[in-house]
Design a protein that fits this description.
The complex is a heterodimer. Chain A is of the alpha+beta class. Chain A is 74% helix and 7% strand. Chain A is built from 10 helices and 4 strands. Chain A has a 4-stranded antiparallel beta sheet. Helix content of chain B is 31%, strand content 24%. Chain B is built from 9 helices and 12 strands. Classes of the chains: A alpha+beta, B alpha/beta.
């Protein structure tokens, strides 16, 4: 078994170098595909990063309290909300605090100077754990007796829902794109290996005539495919890693308001994905490519 | 050791224990072997190759073989002769299980080839040594590697491969050519490499399809001597050939195939029907 593995490894290595032109063509094709796949993964990751940032902001809902509500009622409702499993935190902001907050925001500068008295409501700032629960919490708050009927709640409800839908669609599109890329690369590897096999069909014929098992014949090609895939994955990975940080920096300087950041931790998961994908695609392509010739 | 050595036209012969046993069973002395290089096959024992009402029709509709019945005892040396397209090659392809019979049964060494599972095929092929007209050597491998190939496929350890390849090269008198590439060898030498490859794993059967087809008469004769020696060691040899001179000279078993049928089965025959001699049908 080990001896056969050694034979297969040797044979694959030799074949890779003997048909260097074909091998490099295969490496190049798979590299390009893996770069596309990797870019897809990075964009997906960046998008989820951005989404997480937005999620932090939009999962906040503020419930305006009408001025004549007794403090005890507000505290009771605060307790009730805090006990709700969908809610992560509830903070009571008094009228004075709200005014201070309002005045301290530089965007409200001119408006703040013109304010007389305190027209602002006291409010409960509620953080909801899951974005999709924001509207439910909103509905609950609207039924509360102490709410300000003219301006009940503030949250970016529509925006939240759209973001959710968008992220679902984008995730689906990403998966579809990845699937297409995988099929394309399997076909490319298959054809490349088929070319290599065609060059070696005499050898395969002789192998079969002297009694080689199908896996003995197939082994070197499958290993060659894995080698091709791994080399391609390494090339694609290094190019992506080199380009990742500058691309993020450039993006941040061009489109500042989107909370995108360079995430070195993602590289290791990207590396695992790409190397695994490369090896798998190479092996699968070889297996299919060689099957027709190996069948006795 | 003296018992184990005999002197043939190509130098010292080495015998394995099985060869000696085979020879003892067949009462063939070393002297007989080196002089005549003839094993007398025992037709009374169970045949190692047997065709029973074998028909082969290709998908194109060509009827290559019709109702072929044939029994080959162990140690037999038989020539398949007949015009091109008569069905010789089909018979050889059936024997190495490149094709399955359309009807009828083929038994080799107790295995029915038509019903053999695909994954068993490699193990069957290992019992058979194959020699072809076009040698089927791999041009990018040296002589040594070409012969070793047949053993590597079996997953044999290196030291065993080394020893057996050296032995096989010695048998075909090509010692010293280990590192040559096939392209630098003559046709006869290439065929001897192919024969060395066919016998390196000590197969019980040697099946040859026109092994002398590409060779001049003198070289063809040398190659035939090799086949006779392999046969004398106990291997059963089936050879399809067009070489009339050799068949006539050796007077071994001749099976003439014509239009897909066995036209003649002669235990010591000639290429063409021998008018003077009454026909002896085997079986």
């Amino acid at each position: 078994m080990l001896r056969n593995l050694k034979f297969a490894l040797n044979s694959a290595w030799q074949s890779f170098w003997r048909n260097l032109a074909v091998s490099l063509a295969a490496v190049l094709s798979i590299t390009l595909i893996l770069i596309l796949a990797g870019t897809n993964l990075i964009i997906g990751h960046a998008f989820s990063q951005v989404l997480d940032g937005f999620r932090q902001k939009v999962s906040e809902i503020s419930i305006n309290v009408s001025d004549d509500t007794p403090l005890q009622t507000v505290y009771d409702f605060q307790q009730q909300l805090a006990a709700d499993p969908r809610v992560t935190s509830v903070k009571f902001v008094t009228k004075d605090e709200a005014l201070t907050q309002f005045k301290s925001d530089p965007q409200n500068g001119i408006l703040a100077q013109q304010i007389e008295g305190n027209p602002l409501d006291a409010k409960l700032e509620v953080h909801v754990a899951n974005l999709s629960d924001v509207s439910a919490v909103d509905a609950l708050a609207r039924k509360w007796s102490g709410i300000d009927p003219t301006d009940p709640t503030n949250y970016q409800g529509d925006f939240v829902n759209r973001m959710l839908q968008l992220s679902q669609w984008l995730g689906l599109a990403g998966v579809a794109l990845l699937l297409i890329l995988m099929v394309v690369s399997v076909v490319i590897v298959m054809n490349t290996i088929r070319t290599a096999v065609y060059h070696r069909r005499k050898e395969i014929e002789v192998m079969k005539l002297v009694g080689a098992t199908e896996w003995f014949v197939r082994g070197p090609f499958v290993i060659e495919g894995i080698m091709t895939g791994l080399i391609a994955a390494s090339v694609a990975l290094s190019l992506l890693v080199i380009a990742y940080q500058p691309a993020v920096d450039r993006f941040k300087s061009d489109v500042g308001f989107i909370p995108l950041s360079y995430d070195p931790a993602f590289i290791s998961s990207l590396a695992v994905d790409l190397l695994l994908a490369g090896a798998l695609l190479g092996a699968l392509g070889s297996y299919i490519g060689v099957r027709r010739y190996v069948r006795i | 050791m003296a018992l184990r050595e005999g002197v043939g036209p190509f130098g010292a012969l080495r015998y394995t224990a099985r060869d000696l046993a085979t020879r003892a069973r067949r009462r063939v002395t070393t002297q007989q072997e080196t002089q005549l290089m003839v094993l007398t096959p025992d037709f009374a024992t169970r045949p190692v190759i047997s065709f029973q009402h074998v028909h082969k029709t290709y998908p194109t509709g060509t009827e290559a073989l019709r109702d072929v019945n044939l029994e080959v005892p162990e140690g037999d040396f038989l020539f398949l002769v007949g015009p091109s397209g008569a069905g010789k090659s089909t018979l050889v392809r059936l024997l190495i299980r490149e094709e399955k019979p359309t009807r009828g049964k083929i038994f080799v060494d107790g295995i029915e080839l038509g019903r053999m599972k695909r994954r068993k095929l490699p193990y069957y092929r290992r019992k058979v040594g194959l020699v072809f007209q076009d040698f089927k050597l791999l041009p990018n491998l040296t002589v040594f590697e070409n012969i070793a190939f047949a053993m590597r496929v079996l997953g044999e350890p290196d030291h065993k491969v080394q020893a057996r390849v050296a032995e096989a090269l010695d048998t075909v008198s090509l010692s010293g050519k280990e590192n040559s590439y096939p392209s630098s060898l003559s046709g006869g030498e290439q065929q001897r490499v192919a024969i060395a490859r066919a016998l390196v794993h000590a197969p019980r059967f040697i099946i040859a399809d026109e092994p002398t087809g590409n060779l001049d008469p003198a070289t063809a004769w040398e190659i035939m001597q090799l086949f006779l020696r392999i046969n004398a060691r106990g291997a059963t040899v089936v050879m399809a050939t067009h070489n009339r001179e050799i068949v006539d000279l050796l007077r071994r078993r001749v099976i003439a195939i014509d239009a897909g049928q066995i036209a003649r089965d002669d235990r010591s025959g000639r290429y063409h029907e021998d008018v003077a001699k009454p026909q002896v049908r085997a079986q």
